[in-house]
């Protein structure tokens, strides 16, 4: 028996039919596969992925990796060529860009899966390459499909705070993004004209009116997406589009609420960590609790002192800070995982603390250090522009009440348009310096 199977396998390979199973052309028989459907999914993905990529790169710039201690990707080299000074105006910019990055990425998941389904026969094409040009094309497909899978999988796990990676998420996601974008650029350069022609070959409104009984395979195409021996259809093309579109709408509905204040936040079932609330005026998201980061109520209690370091070094109690001029602003706080909220914060301006340290606020950057003992972002640096903004606070209260311990009591940073992790909680030291030193 084994001898006969080996003989048949060798004969099939010599005939160019490939190994048994998915490598054989007759294995894939869906009558819906073809250039038109593949191109519809592809063009939707192209627009969506460009937006996701741009907002992701903006998120990286918002981390100000050129400032001391902020760079999570020290080996990036030329990949940081586009970095710029992240602004504080408008205050809601990071909330919008990062919310778009995460919510749109989740919304595109059904479209991505549908696109992979539509081209899966090409991934099993045999032989692997008939020419150098085809080998290059298939290698770009491996990078494109693998890169998309890696970026979406690691991004979704990060949104859920499932840090199961055997590597650091931040550099891996950045490097993976550039590899994926390079493969996408090659793919678009080669396939975009063909995709536009394919989309124009059939009328979308007619396809949306076509019932299952009238569904027919597309004409044979030179790229082999249309099966040579199609099976009878079990779904119309409009059914496929409705199924994929409905999946995207569902993903949007289960995630968009995390970027909005109000009742819709309860619908953000794909962001469970975003619904871990405090009580009363502190009733908004807690990404990481004090206990999870090793901060105790005792060290944040009456004995706590804030070190303000600059031309001189002074120590301030919470009572000392409350005796200084206080300012109140409604400012959003937005997290890299996509959730955001706007609250009313009261505290001392960072600019006033810079003056207290003997440095002019228009020329002073600052590094804020936290009481937290574990995890990333125990400190973060802010630029001179961020320190100088009058809305940048060392917050002591939120919504008229003292901060809760999980929200950063006794004091936390709040800076307009900064990523949430740079709004350092449980601040123990503010080191002011002239930027560049």
UniProtKB/TrEMBL annotation:
Transmembrane segments: 36-63, 102-120, 141-163, 175-192, 240-260
A Pfam family matched in the record: Oxidored_molyb
Basic and acidic residues biased stretches: 210-219
Alphabetical keyword list: Membrane, Transmembrane, Transmembrane helix
Top-rank lineage group of the source organism: Bacteria
GO molecular function, one term: oxidoreductase activity
Protein name, UniProt field: Oxidoreductase molybdopterin-binding domain-containing protein
Species in which this protein is naturally found: Nonomuraea diastatica
């Amino acid at each position: 028996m084994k001898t006969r199977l080996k003989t048949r396998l060798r004969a099939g390979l010599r005939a160019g039919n490939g190994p048994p199973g998915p490598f054989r052309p007759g294995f894939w028989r869906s009558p819906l596969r073809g250039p038109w459907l593949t191109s519809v999914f592809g063009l939707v993905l192209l627009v969506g992925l460009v937006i996701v990529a741009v907002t992701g790169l903006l998120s990286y710039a918002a981390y100000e990796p050129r400032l001391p201690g902020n760079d999570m990707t020290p080996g990036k080299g030329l990949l940081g060529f586009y970095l710029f000074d992240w602004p504080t105006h408008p205050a809601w910019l990071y909330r919008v860009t990062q919310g778009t990055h995460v919510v749109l990425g989740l919304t595109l998941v059904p479209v991505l899966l549908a696109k992979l389904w539509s081209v899966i026969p090409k991934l099993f094409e045999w032989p692997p390459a008939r020419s150098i040009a085809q080998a290059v094309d298939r290698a770009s497909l491996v990078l494109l499909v693998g890169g998309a899978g890696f970026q979406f999988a690691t991004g979704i796990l990060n949104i859920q705070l499932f840090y199961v990676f055997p590597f650091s998420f931040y550099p891996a996601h950045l490097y993976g993004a550039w590899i994926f974008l390079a493969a996408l650029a090659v793919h678009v350069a080669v396939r975009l004209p063909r995709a536009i022609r394919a989309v124009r070959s059939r009328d979308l409104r007619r396809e949306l009116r076509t019932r299952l009984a009238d569904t027919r395979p597309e004409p044979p195409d030179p790229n082999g997406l249309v099966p040579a021996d199609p099976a009878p259809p079990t779904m119309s093309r409009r059914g496929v589009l409705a199924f994929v579109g409905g999946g995207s709408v569902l993903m949007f509905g289960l995630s968009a609420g995390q970027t909005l204040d109000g009742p819709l936040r309860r619908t953000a079932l794909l962001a469970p960590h975003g619904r871990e609330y405090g009580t009363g005026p502190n009733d908004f998201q807690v990404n990481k609790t004090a206990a999870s980061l090793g901060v105790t109520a005792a060290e944040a209690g009456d004995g706590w002192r804030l070190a303000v370091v600059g031309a001189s070094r002074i120590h301030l109690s919470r009572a000392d800070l409350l005796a200084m001029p206080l300012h109140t602003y409604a400012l959003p706080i937005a997290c890299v995982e996509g959730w955001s909220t706007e609250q009313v914060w009261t505290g001392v301006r960072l600019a006033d603390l810079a003056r207290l340290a003997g440095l002019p606020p228009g020329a002073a950057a600052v590094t804020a250090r936290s009481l937290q003992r574990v995890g990333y972002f125990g400190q973060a640096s802010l630029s001179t522009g961020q320190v100088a903004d009058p809305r940048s606070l060392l917050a002591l209260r939120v919504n008229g009440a003292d901060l809760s311990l999980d929200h950063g009591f006794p004091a936390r940073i709040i800076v307009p348009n900064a990523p949430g992790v740079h709004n350092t909680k449980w601040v123990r030291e503010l080191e002011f310096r002239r930027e560049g030193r």
